[in-house]
Write a structure and sequence with these properties.
The chain has 85 residues and is mainly α. Helix content is 40%, strand content 5%. Strand 1 and strand 2 form a beta hairpin.
């Protein structure tokens, strides 16, 4: 049994075009409104972030000095050798 479809050869048929016609302008306007809203939020955010100079944030002079040299050895057995002595 062949399935019914509004598409013929991967193109919308006449019935589908007639059914979509009343909504074409309204959908286009809604899409444009959503796009403009998203772009305005994006522009506002970029503009707000670019105005911040971070002058009130203290910048440290450098890393603090280390209290002692880090342990770099691979022996983690606490001084006990592999032979157990």
């Amino acid at each position: 049994m062949p399935q019914s479809s509004y598409y013929r050869d991967n193109k919308p048929g006449a019935a589908l075009q007639r059914a979509r016609r009343p909504y074409l302008v309204r959908n286009a306007l809604t899409g444009a409104a959503i796009f403009c809203f998203a772009m305005s939020i994006y522009a506002f955010t970029i503009r707000a972030v670019s105005q911040d100079e971070f002058e009130d944030v203290p910048i440290p002079d450098g890393p603090p000095p280390a209290a002692h040299a880090p342990h770099t050895g691979t022996n983690r057995s606490g001084g006990v050798t592999a032979t157990g002595t």
